[in-house]
Amino acid sequence: MDRFLLTTNCTDLSSYREYAEENGLGLELQAFAEPEALSGKWQKILADNKSQLRGFSGEIGFHGAFYDMNSGSRDPEVVKLTQQRYRENLVAAAELEANYVVLHLNYLGPLKLLGYHDDWLQRQLEFWCTFIDEIPRFGVPVLLENSWEDRPEIVIEILQAVNSPYLRACLDVAHATIYSRIPFSAWLGAFEPYLECCHLNNHDGEHDLHQPLSEGVIDYKEVIISIDRLSRRPFMCLELPSLPSIKSSMEYLQTQELA
């Protein structure tokens, strides 16, 4: 069961912690991604989380801000706000002794404008080649997660250019299979040198539903087998909306002898 985590955006962590400890799981905390939390409440949530997680021995992941965040924006004020939110996330993650912070690039894959990708990439490189200098003092690596990117190279070219152990990758299996026509095997192969975490949930082929692993078009038996073949196994995070859906997915993994 090593290196499996479950997600929660609840402020009351008691039931999630109990289930995690009973099953040898870690926790990925997602409350700090919510705009409501970031607008003046994150310090209280941080204090509450530290109290509730005292003595917790499992791995801790951390999902940072992503709603309307744009590190490649043409508007410098948007970039400034994005930097502020990311710094707040890193402060909280460091206090919680998290293993990683997940952030998004928010690439607009459906946007069919000539020059969009090249301009976006240049602005992203300007952001990350500067921001990367701040990350080591927090001691928590940032993992860039694919969201609407339609091919893995969009994320990988940033990781290659920055070339830092503090900037790595999170592969969201559902996103890769909804927003891209490229096979999952190609995504996994491209991400492998940088891969620290995979987000796992299922969908109907059209909508990002965050369904249990056994309910949807993704064959998670094949996905887990493919991940297990990697030279180094990443964290595998059940990114699901409720404890019942997490329990259902863990039962599926155990039935398939994948966990």
Give the helix/strand layout.
Blueprint: E1 4-8, H1 14-23, E2 26-29, H2 35-38, H3 42-52, E3 60-63, H4 76-95, E4 100-104, H5 116-131, E5 142-145, H6 153-162, E6 167-172, H7 173-178, H8 184-191, E7 195-200, H9 220-228, E8 235-238, H10 243-255
Parallel strand pairs: 1-2, 1-8, 2-3, 3-4, 4-5, 5-6, 6-7, 7-8
Helix pairs in contact: 5-6
What would you note in describing this structure?
The protein has one domain (4-255): Divalent-metal-dependent TIM barrel enzymes (TIM Barrel, Alpha-Beta Barrel), CATH 3.20.20. The protein is 41% helix and 15% strand. The chain contains 10 helices and 8 strands. Helix 6 links the parallel strand 5 (142-145) and strand 6. The longest helix is centred in the first third of the chain and has 20 residues, at 76-95. The mean pLDDT is 95.
- Low-confidence segments, given as residue ranges, are none
- In spatial order, strands of the major sheet run 1-2-3-4-5-6-7-8
Measured on Cα atoms, how large is the radius of gyration? 18 Å
CATH topology name: TIM Barrel
Integer average pLDDT: 95
What's the CATH architecture? Alpha-Beta Barrel
Shape: globular
What is the assigned CATH homologous superfamily?
A: Divalent-metal-dependent TIM barrel enzymes
The description of the largest β-sheet is:
8 strands, parallel, barrel
- Tell me the count of domains: 1
| DSSP strand count | 8
The proportion of strand residues reads 5-15%
